[in-house]
Design the sequence.
């Protein structure tokens, strides 16, 4: 498999005919890199004045004692931030000794870390035998920096990197496995396998060892691809698409180059479908369909996107204003940051942004849509079926989003603060994870249940030029005796009035149960007008029309801790059936207000 492997750093990283020195000299002065260069230089000047954050045993122990991750991770990721800045500046400005000296200091500090793993990933295990996401990423980063800087690094430091990679990654992979991520069907498989495989490609000189590593990581990457349906949708959301698929691409690129194209992981048919998911997931600007543990706003990675655009002609590139900056990734990962420089393509950057589009993904049961009204408003709509045992699962079958010019009036809370409890038995007590924090019905006071058996059945799915529709049987999502049927229809009319209509038809066996519609929003609701809920945010007003004789409306302000540990207020708007019957039909109509709206009448 590895016979004949061997390429220089310039062959691995730079375009044919351009030397490493030539590329970085061009990047230092070319207009297409000017914004990135200015940001990087400002980052370097700022970090020169800051000490290397300490990673103490006290910090490491906080997770075991309290379940909180943020204290240790803030310091850990700040070290990786320094690594990125000073390594990139040492390439961009090779004569700047002040940056080079700080790079050496940072490299030595990281090599001295007791473990490269996060405390949350080594609980109850031997850290020396563990490979987690961040230990794998760190080994990849150090290997790549050693390769790119070459003889500029002191020999003892390069040797230290090679020993650390062998001890912390290669040895545990071959000796202490199998590791849980080797058969995972989500981002862990791609990030861990891709990073360890890349480090081995760059730093392992023994052909037998490299063969053994590839024999482990290639099947793991196949498992990662198995987590996608043929439609290419990422059930973990666009953030984890960036993460997992990004590391798949970084490794696949190095592997193809090191083998002269003999091993081509892009040749797998599903990879093309996965590559095209990004352009569908953006609803308006950098706002995304943030189902699962996703952030609500995700700038795109320039390097990854431009690389894929060169490979797949139908891939579209978002508008350049939504590019990820140097500090956008709070984990400060080296691999995507480097490739934002190396893979940047000025011609692709000028492509003009994403076009209006609607697409249904039958395997994931996601309907994603963005359109521009005659008045120039950007509308985004997303809805999902699926099941309640997805990667980074939320109990959210039937969830939907509706936004105007980037303001989500029907919203998804996205990911919360990661703690031990967040991934434990109480996961669905968190509003952002449980169905109570989603725009789905409440039946007999109960939310949806977790588990693969609690799934939607798709009755209709259509992504059309003037109208999109998703009709779902939600009965199996609930464990409510007496619930005979529950069918949700979401019909998004994009032409003319741009109106979203939600219709739920619910039937009971025996005594009718209580039934409540819930809509999640970040906009404070005004309930004073009978038959209309008014939402105002971002200079816009949206209206939700309903039949006041059928439904009693109320609202509650709630707060959750977002992914960065910051409190975020949201509102649960509830419409309760006043007098449930054996069969009921409920309709909510969402439209943009203009001050002269006709009253909604139930049909």
Sequence:
């Amino acid at each position: 498999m590895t016979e004949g492997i061997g390429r220089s750093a310039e062959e691995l990283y730079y375009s044919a005919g351009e030397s490493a020195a030539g590329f970085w000299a061009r990047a230092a002065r070319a207009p297409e890199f000017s914004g990135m260069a200015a940001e990087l230089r400002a980052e370097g000047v700022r970090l020169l004045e800051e000490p290397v954050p300490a990673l103490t045993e006290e910090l490491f122990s906080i997770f075991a004692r309290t379940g909180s991750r943020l204290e240790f991770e803030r310091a850990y990721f700040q070290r990786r931030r320094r690594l990125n800045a000073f390594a990139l500046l040492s390439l961009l400005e090779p004569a700047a000794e002040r940056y080079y000296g700080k790079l050496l200091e940072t490299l030595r500090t990281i090599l001295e870390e007791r473990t490269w793993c996060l405390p949350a990933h080594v609980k109850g295990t031997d850290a020396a035998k563990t490979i987690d996401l961040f230990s794998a990423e760190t080994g990849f980063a150090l290997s790549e920096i050693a390769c790119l800087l070459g003889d500029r690094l002191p020999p003892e430091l390069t040797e230290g990197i090679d020993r650390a990679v062998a001890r912390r990654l290669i040895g545990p992979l071959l000796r202490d496995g199998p590791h849980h991520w080797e058969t995972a069907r989500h981002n862990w498989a791609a990030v861990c396998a891709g990073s360890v495989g890349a480090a081995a490609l760059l730093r392992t000189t023994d052909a037998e060892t490299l063969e053994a590593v590839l024999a482990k990581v290639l099947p793991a990457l196949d498992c990662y691809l198995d987590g996608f349906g043929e439609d290419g949708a990422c059930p973990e959301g666009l953030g984890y698409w960036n993460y997992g698929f990004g590391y798949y691409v970084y490794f696949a690129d190095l592997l193809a180059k090191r083998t002269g194209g003999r091993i081509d992981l892009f040749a797998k048919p599903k990879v093309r479908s996965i590559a095209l998911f990004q352009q569908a997931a953006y609803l308006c600007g950098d706002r995304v369909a943030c189902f699962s543990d996703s952030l609500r706003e995700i700038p795109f990675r320039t390097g990854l996107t431009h690389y894929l655009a060169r490979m797949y002609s139908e891939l579209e590139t978002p508008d350049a204003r939504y590019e990820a900056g140097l500090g956008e990734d709070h984990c400060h990962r080296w691999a995507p940051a480097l490739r934002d420089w190396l893979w940047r393509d000025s011609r692709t950057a000028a492509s003009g942004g994403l076009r209006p589009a609607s697409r249904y993904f039958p395997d994931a049961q996601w309907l994603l849509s963005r359109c521009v009204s005659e008045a120039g408003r950007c509308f985004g709509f997303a809805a999902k079926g699926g099941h309640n045992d997805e990667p980074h699962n939320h109990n959210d079958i039937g969830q939907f989003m509706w936004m105007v010019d980037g303001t989500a009036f029907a919203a998804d809370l996205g990911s919360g603060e990661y703690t031990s409890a967040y991934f434990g038995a109480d996961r669905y007590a968190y509003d952002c994870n449980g169905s109570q924090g989603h725009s789905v019905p409440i039946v007999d006071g109960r939310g949806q249940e977790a588990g693969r058996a609690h799934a939607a059945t798709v009755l209709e799915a259509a992504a059309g030029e003037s109208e999109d529709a998703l009709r779902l049987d939600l009965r199996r999502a609930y464990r409510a005796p007496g619930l005979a049927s529950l069918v949700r229809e979401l019909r998004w009319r994009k032409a003319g009035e741009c109106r979203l209509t939600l219709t739920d038809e619910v039937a009971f066996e025996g005594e009718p149960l209580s039934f409540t519609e819930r809509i999640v929003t970040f906009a404070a609701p005004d309930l004073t007008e009978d038959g209309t809920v008014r939402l105002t945010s971002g200079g816009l007003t949206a209206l939700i029309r309903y039949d006041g004789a059928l439904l009693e409306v109320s609202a509650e302000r709630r707060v959750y801790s977002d992914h960065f540990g910051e409190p975020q207020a949201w509102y649960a708007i509830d419409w309760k059936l006043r007098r449930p019957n054996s069969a009921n039909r409920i309709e909510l109509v969402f439209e943009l207000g203009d001050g002269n709206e006709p009253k909604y009448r139930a049909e």
